[in-house]
Amino acid sequence: xxxxxxxxxxxxxxxxxxxxxxxxxxxxxxxxxxxxxxxxxxxxxxxxxxxxxxxxxxxxxxxxxxxxxxxxxxxxxxxxxxxxxxxxxxxxxxxxxxxxxxxxxxxxxxxxxxxxxxxxxxxxxxxxxxxxxxxxxxxxxxxxxxxxxxxxxxxxxxxxxxxxxxxxxxxxxxxxxxxxxxxxxxxxxxxxxxxxxxxxxxxxxxxxxxxxxxxxxxxxxxxxxxxxxxxxxxxxxxxxxxxxxxxxxxxxxxxxxxxxxxxxxxxxxxxxxxxxxxxxxxxxxxxxxxxxxxxxxxxxxxxxxxxxxxxxxxxxxxxxxxxxxxxxxxxxxxxxxxxxxxxxxxxxxxx
Length: 351
Ligand code: 2P0
Prior knowledge:
The longest helix has 21 residues, at 227-247. The strands form 4 sheets. This protein has a 6-stranded mixed beta sheet. The chain has helices at 83-100, 122-137, 144-154, 158-161, 213-223, 227-247, 250-269, 280-294, 318-328, and strands at 21-25, 28-32, 37-39, 44-45, 49-53, 59-66, 73-76, 79-80, 105-112, 166-169, 187-189, 197-203, 299-303, 309-314, 333-337, 344-345. The chain is an alpha+beta fold. The protein has 2 domains: 3-192, Ribosomal Protein S5, domain 2, CATH 3.30.230.10; 197-337, GHMP kinase, C-terminal domain (Alpha-Beta Plaits, 2-Layer Sandwich), CATH 3.30.70. It binds ligand 2P0. Residues 30, 33-35, 43, 49, 123, 155-157, 213-214, 304-305 line the site of ligand 2P0. GO terms for molecular function: ATP binding; diphosphomevalonate decarboxylase activity. InterPro entries: GHMP_kinase_C_sf, Mev_decarb, Mev_diP_decarb, MVD-like_N, Mvd1_C, Ribosomal_Su5_D2-typ_SF, Ribsml_uS5_D2-typ_fold_subgr. Keywords: ATP-binding, Lipid biosynthesis, Lipid metabolism, Lyase, Nucleotide-binding. Belongs to the diphosphomevalonate decarboxylase family.
């Protein structure tokens, strides 16, 4: 495997205005959470995390290079991005251009099927699709590991959406190395037994969150007295999770995921000032998950930087779980996801 910083840019592979490149990527939900960075610019996490990629809510992103343009153009669901969101994409394109030795501006057109900024992993699918499409458009020949490192620079959780099924994102070594490839922070597939889990996604509120996960993570690391203990316990959770996945033991996977997520939210509640993503409908759904378990249905909850709840269960129980969750949060909507594919380039005929 060649490290990405040694790749010589191949200008003949750069796709100009006519062609460009397009890619699709799916969101992932962390079963062992990423919460806290040790380096904000390089997007290096403090702990390892592990996720399941979903088979719903993909993002599709087109990148066209325009030799005439003076600025990048970025649209999300057909609407031009502005401010910080636009700058985040441009900073990412600069990184790709630097590696490709190109100064060409790009037109980026991204379509989400997942509500943006609602804690449903839109930045994971978004930056994974952008990494695959932009690197192809600029003629970089990156393997999956290098794509994962690149996607990480856009949004940490995007490193995991390069891969399908279950993926671990390694925190890597302490900063100080000269190149990203030396830092060891990338995702890779995790060996998993044959089993058929579903994630029932209870969307109790699809609106954007009040506090960005970036800001919330920073505040938690800097001020929460519970952060250190959670990060330490997450290491043990990861070991237990890998073993549970190897056995295909859904109960163990669910128990570990639930305790890891509740612990992460506890760190936020103890931040100063507190960050609270969990709302009254969130707690109603959590109560319904406990009732399901009491009734003998294996179901376990995990929540991210938002009020929505993802319930892990056997695929064969998914309809029942979806029904119970739907009546617990009548104002929301419920989606059922299974194990999804990794990010990939779209062929000409698929765009
Ligand atoms: C995760 N989350 O592991 C965790 C759990 C939310 C809670 O990754 O700052 O959008 O772009 O690296 O990836 C959400 O954070 O953050 C996230 P940045 P990201 O899925």
